[in-house]
Amino acid sequence: MATAAQTNERNHVAADLDTSRGMPAIFANTGTSSFTQFLAVAAPDLLPGRRPLPPGVTAEHGTHATTIVALACDGGVVMAGDRRATMGNLIGSRDIEKVHSADPYSLVGTAGTAGVAIEMVRLFQVELEHYEKIEGATLSLEGKSNRLAAMIRNNLGAALQGLAVVPLYAGFDLAATEPATAGRIFSYDVAGGLYEERSGYDAVGSGSLFARSALKKRFRTGLPVDDAIRLAVEALYDAADDDTATGGPDLTRKIYPVVMTATAEGTRRLSEEQAAAVAESVVAARMENPGG
Fold it and tell me: Is there a contact between 128 and 139 (Cβ–Cβ < 8 Å)?
């Protein structure tokens, strides 16, 4: 439990961030390797989960991002997300990006309240970079997944009012003895519970039930990266086929899923041309066999 002095410091330190008199003292003190913990002291109102919310459920006022899939492959992991965000029965955005590089060897995708999710991803990216700068070393993949779990727990109050974020985290484990099986996937619940997916694939979001079912039928251990990319896009197609909140490839507007990989060479995002080629190939195949 915080002492009276610590509580008083938290109440007043944000006011001391005025840089007109030079660097604030808090930046010169020996600090923690966790940027989130530093921010909780320096400016707690900047943390998503610390902001006061009006009473009642507020989910209907936010835009919600939907389906993300991830699967392990030979040499790493593939993660892909559709581009639709919804506001109730309306389409809030047709080209939102839900899959991001967390650091050079890992990926994070988010489903839930879009604004909070984007902010959480940015904070997570800074968290990992801050740790590396302070400690002079990178966190293990388990350590990174635990840091993300703590952020989700800190957002629990907002989640209970409807502003929930449920991410999917995956990456290439630099400590793995076998690079071919170094791809690992972690899922979370709304309270910050952390679970490693041993099946080799997972999905989150409103279309996750359909995407996971598609992956379950066709996933095989050791899939080549290109095959895993196509399977991820097909799973998103199946999700969009049965879930109105998930957007399929938009050939008219040329809006395609965001697809990223994490391997020993680092993270990589497929170019628009590459994503278009895969998505258009999937759509063409479904014209002949709608059920896949």
Answer: yes
The amino acid sitting at 197 is E
- Residue 152 has which token pair? 């989700």
The alpha helices in 97-246, defined as continuous H runs, are 114-135, 141-154, 156-160, 208-218, 225-242
Mean pLDDT computed over 248-257: 96
* Domain boundaries of the chain, sorted by first residue: 61-288
Q: Is there a contact between 187 and 199 (Cβ–Cβ < 8 Å)?
A: no
Q: Which residues pair with 45 in a beta bridge?
A: none
C-alpha 145, offset from chain centre: 11
267 is catalytic: no
pLDDT tens, position by position, 57-85 = 554 555 677 899 999 999 999 999 999 99
Please, what is the Cα angle at 225 between 175 and 222, to 5 degrees?
A: 65
CB 53 within 8 A of CB 157: yes
57 near 164, Cβ under 8 Å?
A: no
Catalytic residue among 66, 113, 263, 267: 66
DSSP percent split of the chain into helix, strand, coil, nearest 5 = 45, 25, 35
Identify the sign of the CA torsion 129, 131, 132, 138: negative
Distances (CA, A) of 51 to 147, 158, 188: 20, 9, 22
CA distances (Å), origin 96, targets 84, 104, 115, 172: 6, 22, 11, 25
C-alpha to C-alpha distance for 240 and 233, rounded to whole angstroms:
11
**Predicted confidence band at 7 (pLDDT cuts at 50, 70, 90)?**
very low
Given CATH 3.60.20.10, say whether it is the number of domain 61-288. yes
